[in-house]
Amino acid sequence: MSGKTHPWGAPPWTVDFRPAPHTLPEQVDFAIVGGGFTGLSAAAWLRRLSPKKSVVVFESSSLGQGASGRTGGLALAETAAGPLPGLSDVLAGYQEILRKLRIDSSLELPGVWELGRSNTANKLPICWSDSGDLKVVRTVPGGAVDPGKVVAGLGRAVENAGAQIIEHAQVHAIEYSNPPRLQIRRKVRSHVQQTEIRASQILLATNAFSLELAGLRGTAQAKLTLALATRPLTAGQLKAIGLSSRHPFYTIDLPYLWGRLLESNGIVFGAGLVPMPASIDALFSKPSGPSAQQSAEPNLYRFDVRKGEAAESFCWLESRVHKLHPALRSARITHRWAGPILFTEGMRPIFRHHPRSENVMVLAGYNGHGVALSVYLGQWAAEALLGKRPLPDWR
């Protein structure tokens, strides 16, 4: 990632890859909008499956500055809506994709603990104090990954396959002609270039951004989710809090909390959303009325993790972490960061053609379950764009 201070803070991993510079083309076979897990996976597989086709990824910022580089790194087997058709082998498929693309991801799959506050929960291996006693209810398939390594590895895989990645190229509009045309703004030194590019097919993989561009305004809500990381803990501390087995975890009741160990033995904890929804019901329902536009697409860039609502939320999260267990009372917080997340109706991913064009595909809305799923669906999107696989019906 860039060394420049970002208002959303910095996670404890880096993206040690920058794509080669390219000029904007006049036309391209496949235009991928969004350089995160989804877009990069799709681009790499498009070139592997159809090496004679031109593929360009347009990223409005730099790789790793969106959701993919700012996730907590929990790799889960299912969607937030539970099992859906065509997604019975997400983790196996994810591992296979990482292997075929030769990505060193530090993936560990010990299983993920679901934590609950009910009286029937087990006492071991952990018992934390957080609005009741948090204990392990069950173990589900999954684990954790280094998001920075995955973004960088996918970026290298895209370039090695012969596709191009163009950073700081913002697609601000699409003309739904035949073929479609992308209107792109690109900042070069001190001035902004405006360019129109023809594309035979387009994949919109911007997730929580460009809701209007993707035809999602009013049907999805973008928020920032918060996370922090502690300094490395000793083996004794890890044993005391019950994390020696390195299982990631998340709660199945409120208040929500999730986390996982880093390779350094620091711990990532996450919870909280900004801007806060008026209620949980409001978060998962379709916005309506005069305020729908504002609630569907807030200006997330105005949030600085050091100020206002976000800073207050971090103080609340840090206090919770220190009170979970005596071994965490003195744990020093080394990183604080936020990442965008998109909530959809029914918590189902959105994977469909754009309502205005069969030549434009939209893939977004993982509801916090996108680490493995987004890469897996990126491959599916590549196959769909090439006519090798139909889109799913998740209605």
Describe the structure.
The protein is an alpha/beta fold and 395 residues long. The chain has a single domain (27-385), classed as FAD/NAD(P)-binding domain, CATH 3.50.50.60. It is built from nine helices and 18 strands. It has helices spanning 37-49, 67-70, 90-100, 147-160, 235-241, 280-283, 292-296, 308-324, 370-385, and strands spanning 27-33, 55-58, 74-76, 112-116, 128-129, 133-140, 142-144, 164-166, 169-175, 181-188, 191-204, 220-230, 249-251, 258-261, 267-274, 333-344, 350-354, 357-364. The strands form three sheets. Strands 1, 2, 8, 9, 10, 11, 17 and 18 form an eight-stranded mixed β-sheet that branches. It has an eight-stranded mixed β-sheet with strand order 5-6-4-13-14-15-12-16. Strands 3-7 form a two-stranded antiparallel ribbon. Strand 5 and strand 6 form a beta hairpin. Helix 1 (37-49) packs parallel to helix 9. It is globular and about 60 Å long. Mean pLDDT is 91; it is low at 279-297.
Q: Helix and strand layout, with pairings?
A:
Blueprint: E1 27-33, H1 37-49, E2 55-58, H2 67-70, E3 74-76, H3 90-100, E4 112-116, E5 128-129, E6 133-140, E7 142-144, H4 147-160, E8 164-166, E9 169-175, E10 181-188, E11 191-204, E12 220-230, H5 235-241, E13 249-251, E14 258-261, E15 267-274, H6 280-283, H7 292-296, H8 308-324, E16 333-344, E17 350-354, E18 357-364, H9 370-385
Parallel strand pairs: 1-2, 1-11, 2-8, 4-13, 11-18
Antiparallel strand pairs: 3-7, 4-6, 5-6, 9-10, 10-11, 12-15, 12-16, 13-14, 14-15, 17-18
Helix pairs in contact: 1-4, 1-9, 3-9
